[in-house]
Amino acid sequence: MLTTLGRPIGLLGLYALLLSDQPASQLAREHHGALEKALQAAIPKKVPAPTEKPGSHHRPLAGPSGGTEIPDHAMDANPPGIDAAALDQLTEGLTKLQELAGTLATRLRATAGDVEVGRAIPAGLNALLTSYDEQLENLAAELAKYDRTCSASGFDAVEQQLAVWRSDLADKEHARRQQVAKRIDELKRSISGVDDLIANNPVPGLPDIRAKYQRQLDELLASLAEEHTVCTDAVPEVSHPSSDQNDDALAADEEQPVVDHEADPEQPESTTCSRTPVVDAVTEPEPEPEPEAEAEAEAEAEAETGSAEESPLDSPWEEGTPPVAVALVESGRLAEAYWVTAMSAEPDRRSAVLSFATAAYNAHNSEDATAVLGSFALNGQELGRDTDAAVLATTSLLRAGLVAGWGPQMLAQLEPTLGILPTPWHELLKTAIRATRVQYRIEPTVGVPLTADTDEIRTELGRRAASLAADLPHRKNLYQRGTRVLQRLVREGQPLDNGLQAVIAWSNGTGSNEQLTSALESFTGHDVADELIEAADAAVRTPKQTREPIIAGARRGLQRAVDEVAALVREAHAVSARIGSAGSKDLAVGDALRRAVTALQEQPTPPGMAGSAVKLLRDWLADPSNTSAPASLGRQLTLTDDGSSTEPTTDVLLPLTDLPWAADGRPDPTHPATSAVLARLTRPFDITEAVAAYCKRGDLRRATRILELHEHNYWGMEADGARLQQNINAARQDWIARHRKAVVEARDLFDRVRAQNLLTQSDDSTVSGRIEALTTVSDDDYHAASRHLANLVGELTNLQQARIDELDAQLDTLQMSDADRLRIRGLLEEGDTVTATEFLSFALEGKSLPDNFDPGTEDLSVFTQFLEEGFRNKLDTPHTSVHRWAELAEPDTPLTNQAKIGIEAWDFLTDPTARARSNLADNVRNILHTLGVNCAARPNAVQPRARRGFRVYRVSATPNDGSYISDLGSSAVEYTVTVVLDERRGRSLLNVLDPEDTSRANIVLYPHAMDSTTRQEIAANAADSKAKALVVDPAAFGWIAAKRPSSWRATQRITLPWTIFEPYKPFVAGLVPPEVFVGRETEMYQVTDPDGGLFVYGGRQLGKSALLRRVHSTFHNGDTRRSIYLDLKAKGIGEAEPASRIWRALTIELKNCGVLGPKVSDEAPPDTIINNVKAWLAESPRRRLLMLADEADAFLTADSRGESTPGGISHFRNVLGLKELMESTERRFKVVFAGLHQVQRFGHISNVPLVHGGPEILIGPLKPLDARKLVVDPMAALGYRFERPELVWRLLSATNYQASLIQIFCEELVRTLHRRRGRSQSVPVLVTEDDVEAVAASDWVRSRIAERLRITINLDDRYRVLTLVIALFSLNDSFGTDYGPEELLEEARRRWHAGFVELTASQVSIYLDEMVGLGLLSRLPQKKRYTVRSPNVINMLGTKADLERELAETDFDRPYEYNPREARRLLACDEHGREFHSPLTDGQLHDLTFNSGISVITGSTALGINRVPDAIQNYAEMRGTRVEKVSSDKELKKAVTDAVRRRSSPTIIIVDALKMPLAEVDSVSGWLVDRLVKKTSPQNVSAVLLATPTVAPTAAGKADTEPVRLERWTARSVRSWPECPFDVPETRELLIKATGGWPELVERTISWVINGGLTLKSAVQRAEKNLSDSAAYHAHLASCGLDENLIRRLENWVEYFQPGEIVPPEDVDAALETDRGSSQALLDHLSMLGVLDEYEDGVAVDMVVHRCLQSLRGTS
Does residue 20 carry a pLDDT above 60? Predict the structure, then answer.
């Protein structure tokens, strides 16, 4: 349009646009350069005004890209620093100048219109231009005072500079306040210090000093208070307009006529002109173009349209006909208009206005509308310079205000900009503004006439309040603490309930407006929600929670609940106020709105964005209830997680399938095609094509979203939803398979790269985390996942290729045969750099390459081929000599002598005549020798004569070369050999085994050849019957005799694949069989090397004890090398026993192994032991003695404590003795201490005598190759071969390379594969990826691995907290960041203040380094920075929510310290590893041992009364006290007499009176009192009387003592159990709840976990289930001492009370229907039996006993 005006006027209009900061179109920008030149050319000319003389002119202004010149005098001065007052003055000047610019721009645009239609130029325009020029120059001069480089080149630049200065001032002020705060803290500390001095040493002058400090402090505090008051007073109070004020305003408006704000061109400017916009003049119709010109214009338009698709859309409010954004707004597509604008070059205010408009038009109730109005944050002055944006903002504010029932003050500020609209449209907006001022409200579901019937609204509000009152008490917060707070808030009489009840009462007419007003006051205030939450939390939180704030997620949920109620109360109050004040006024307003809307029916829509905005409001006012139109606005708002609205939803952009997206889920603003693609939003949308496009590229998330929205009529069009869903499902299955394959390939590549050590520890963790995150595509966006995977694979491929290139270059430099070179190059081409590297090391050493790598199944593969060939040669014919099988195996190799003997013995089995002549047992022995089992003696026939065609022998033997299976090797005490003489066609060979023999080390000799099918049938039968036996037939025996004679391992390789033996033993608590003990060669060497380390440390279950036991078994040869293994914790040394007891334990073991003679006393002093050991070593220079002290933490701690000696305080007295023995023997005697993290710390303490004894020996995860061997070798022996080597590394990754975890995984993998025995028709059996993944996903495996890992983490709650903290950090950072001790300490203190408040960062570093050793963390080289060793560690611990909840809700404990009043010593272990503990604590044993009189102990069998003698003997004999047990009067008297004679030796006599008649107990106790309690009684004799609870009080009374009552375990005392798997308070509580703490039940449950492999949860469930069995609960009640009489008396208790219910004494009387005395007597007896739990407010029968009584009652 401007170009048609001609250059002078057109350029003037363009200048006006640029001056007002309007976004210029592409065409305007093209004419910008011409404008610049024209203005420069016009400088010497004048712009004449109608009222000016021809010679007058005004100074031209700079264009938008130019700047006003700064005066020279301003450039010369030194700019002073700006202060707040000057900054405010500059801001005010800028604001005035912007207002003037807006006015000037409006006048210039109007002038352009006047000139176009032939009118005269208005007067005063030059004066206005001059004023603008002067003010701009003044502003530039003012800016230059403070910054010479600053120019007034544009309002945005000036605003940015002012913002920078304002930020600098804020920073300075903040720094000043920090200094003041610091000074205040210093003064407070000084005052406190002076107060202490005054209190302790009142020196004259101190009060004056204190007063001086106090004055300074008061002055600083007063200044801060004054500043705060000033700041508070400066903040304007924000409130909704009151109804009275609005009524007055409306009345004033109605009194004045409606005036059109059209400017009179002839009227001179007034002071109000700058605030009154000029109305657009009516334009004349444009002349029709000539035909040729029209065709040319159409061609131009087509060309422009075509180029628009290729070029960015910079100005969607201006470009196009109509502009894209304008068209979208007019059709109600505000969200689309927002995104088109936000991704363009339009000013931010325009996209902000559209975002607000989207929210406003989506507010359908007063609550939402009020929230939307409160979110309006746009600057009114800025909007005033952009008419289109101002009109859109006004209509949006009116839309929300009419729904909310009030209008913001911003409407008054924007109202002057509305004058550009034609009169009818302007009148509509004015009428709507007046409606908001009187709090007129439109209910969208009702429409404009919301005036007459308010009862419906009132009823609806009451219904909503009642619904909310019913819902809130049952809501569950994510965290339990949050739920309790919410329940408190909605309790009767509390704020939320009061508010809801006030609304309900008002709604049904029983309440008043005053009640609503009072309720509203409860929700008025800036932080009212937080205050209400804090008050409720204070009433329900625990003491520990007082120190911690409510979790943010829980707080948000509580805030939403408070906001819901508050909004409802506010809405009811507003309706109430309107009902009381509206009346006929609401009717008048509604009529006025309807008239204004009706008046626009025939009016054309104004052009541009302003027109679209008013049309949108008009359409809504015409039908507010219509929200189902195709252009529905209700689909355009998006919400954040906490429910607050943000920018419009991106769902509206789904039709654009080729739209570039950024990582944050928004369109990519940096992509050149984004704006051009967004311009296509005005085109028609084809759902089917869009879904197909998304499915094709794998973006199923967006495809699914399109379909979901279609089901809600989001798009307003028809489509076959079922067909689309089918297409998406089919695409999903395709992409799942493709993605799974891609992930497998990525994992395989990662495993190869990891195995080559091509990644740093940090990169390893990062890559592992990335793969883990990409394993599942939870959001269905396979397109993004594939892109991320491709990037990762590319990075790893580059790493691997670089390594391949490096090795290939190295290969060219080495001398080797061509065959070896080709072999290595082939490995490199396959990417197997691990093996290639190993082979290159051979070449470097000049060695030839080893044979091709065999995963252990080569023998099996050869044997199966050999078997087929034998059957083709008819070697299965009866009575065929096994020699022929041997010849077939090795036709050109002569047999060894042992092989010949074995073959001859085997042939006797097939010859009945020979069997009769020879002794079959001798032949069996020779056969076993050939198989590799050396018999210590002649086999013993279990059944001397043949029975049912077979004979059975038992023989003690040892494998010649080890075993793969411990059941057939190290654990086999003897072998059961079954010789099956008859052929068993149609019958299972394993049926010959007796049921009790199925789990023995069974060998079956079967002299009839079996083909592959028969072997598979045996395997299938073994899987079904669980029978374990190694079956040897002629084929197997001939193969062994010819190829591997006397090799038990070779025998197993060709026989185990058809058995169900299991090699892995993960639950043996340190007793790891040698068959599955791999690696640790370096550690073992360090332990045995005289100069090696002395401290072995590591976490629980990482292999410390296994290592020491392995060293013990391999080092000790019974001759020149002797080793001693001591479990110091099991012996109580350092806890129940003093550290010096180590010498007694050492003496006993030295005597057992022959180093000390039998005459050496067990109580010999250390010097004697040291001298004797020296003497033994001196007898031969080849002799060595190795002392392995396991579980040494408590011993070292105890020995480190100071001990008084004649020479003063001595530390490490016993360690010094051992050190002296080491040094004096040149370390031919060596001691090694093993333990947990404390042992490592002792290795660092400078005053430890052994601190320089050698490097510490860390026992952590296995080395990769050792771990691989633990997986592959046993599996191969069983006939299982991994399909791909990478599967092994996958397995190891899932187990963190920890031996115990590997065994757990492999045990389940073997069992899974065994269950398929018989179905597989070929061996070796391939282990597939599905097999590994199935086990990895098994809950059984995951829970056991997690619990085993937890054993290490729960070693110390500080480990636990630090692990959880770094785990959460890593999850939040996607495993891509490392952390320093300072930041971890800060977070740990926040999570557990008491546990970390005293620690420093350097001390935390020690913990972190220990956690590195435990295999939990990795430390970056050369840095004190830490990362999680593997994301799998985190995955084992639980989900992010689990970890967060654990940190928030756990009551952590300080590290356990030995407590003799709780600790119970270990007495024995059975063959299954189950531990039996003392029923007495160490403290009780100490008291009994040192009591010289009589003690009475009572308790039931369930409490372990039968173990008391063993416990006392175990404790007393270590102290040199003799213990004798008697059970009759006669035995007692003899024992006392003998003890008295041994005056020098103390004796404890245990009198077992449990089965004595009452009279005999009375006699015995009386005799003991007479003999041992008198002053003349012998001091070396004491007695312990074991009595039943019935007689114990009487017997104790005679001895004037209290009976010692045995007690059950408690959750606290279980902490003293070494290596207890129930190692945190939560699990210990579960254990005690399930077992009642009864020793038998506790020990059995713990054993199920340690030795049986059950999880903690499974073990607890099993304990509870076992007691539901009739025999079990009968037995338990009897062992607790409950006879039929007691059980009958407790029937009412069981009937009336629940298990664990605490019952007051008076309720006991009522329930049992007895008097107080009888009830108390019963309770006393139950207490003596230990079945009663006593509390301050009552008693409860033990829950386990209660459940047993319930079960008994249910069956009676």
Answer: no
- How many CA atoms lie within 13 Å of 948's alpha carbon, on the beta-carbon side? 10
- Under a CB-based contact definition with an 8 Å cutoff, are residues 378 and 352 in contact? yes
Tokens of 804: 């391949």
CB 1303 within 8 A of CB 1065: yes
Question: What is the separation, in whole angstroms, between the first and last Cα of the chain?
Answer: 103
Query: What average pLDDT does the segment 113-141 reach?
Result: 76
**pLDDT tens string 1304-1330:** 899 999 988 888 776 666 788 888 878
Compute φ and ψ for 439, nearest 5 degrees.
Answer: 60, 35
Structure confidence at residue 1710 (pLDDT): 80
Statement: residue 21 has pLDDT above 50:
no
Token pair 């060497």 is at which residue? 1085
1649 close to 1474: Cβ distance less than 8 angstroms: no
Sorting pLDDT into bands at 50, 70 and 90, what band is 46?
very low
Under the banding of pLDDT at 50, 70 and 90, the label for residue 317 is very high
Per residue in 403-447, pLDDT (tens digit) is: 888 888 888 888 888 888 999 999 999 999 988 888 888 877 544
Q: What is the helix, strand, coil percentage profile of the chain, to 5?
A: 60, 5, 35
Degrees to nearest 5, angle at CA 620 with 616 and 622: 115
Dihedral angle computed from the Cα positions of residues 265, 267, 270 and 273, in that order, rounded to the nearest 10 degrees = -30
Closest by CA to 1052, choosing from 939, 972, 924, 933, is 933
Q: How far apart are CA 1498 and CA 1485, in angstroms?
A: 14
Mean per-residue pLDDT for 858-866? 87
* Alpha helices (H) in 235-363, listed in sequence order: 243-255, 291-310, 324-330, 334-342, 348-360
CA distance 37 to 41: 6
- Pair 633, 616: CB distance under 8 Å: no
Kindly write down the DSSP assignment for every residue of 627-652, as one continuous string: --STT-GGG---B-TTS-B-SPPGGG
Q: What does the CA dihedral 168, 170, 173, 175 come to, rounded to 10 degrees?
A: -70
Rounded Cα distance between 329 and 627, Å, is 16
Q: Which two tokens stand for residue 1580?
A: 């070396």
SS3 for 785-823 is HHHHHHHHHHHHHHHHHHHHHHHHHHHHCCCCCHHHHHH
DSSP assignment string, 1581-1642: EEEEEEE-TTTHHHHHHHTTS--EE-----TTGGGGSTT-S--SHHHHHHHHHHHTT-HHHH
**DSSP H helical segments within 698-760, as ranges?**
700-711, 721-755
What stretches of 1328-1481 show up as alpha helix (H) in DSSP?
A: 1329-1336, 1339-1353, 1357-1372, 1381-1391, 1393-1396, 1401-1413, 1431-1437, 1440-1449
CA distance 1730 to 1751: 20
Top pLDDT among 1574 and 1546 is at: 1546
DSSP state of 673: T
Q: Where are the beta strands (DSSP E) in 1429-1539?
A: 1466-1469, 1475-1477, 1494-1498, 1522-1526
Per-residue buried b or exposed e for 1477-1487, using 16+ beta carbons within 10 Å of the residue's own CB: bbbbbbebbbe
Residue 1176 to residue 1182: CA distance in whole angstroms: 11
Instruction: Tell me the C-alpha distance between 1163 and 1144, whole Å.
Output: 6
Q: How far is the C-alpha of 485 from the C-alpha of 480, rounded, in Å?
A: 9
Determine the Cα angle at 434 with ends 428 and 435, to 5°: 90
pLDDT in tens, 1424-1457: 888 887 766 777 777 777 788 888 888 887 766 7
Give me the phi and psi of 968, to 5 degrees please.
-105, 10
Class of residue 247 by CB neighbours under 10 A (exposed 0-12, middle 13-18, buried 19+): middle
pTM of the predicted model over 0.70: no
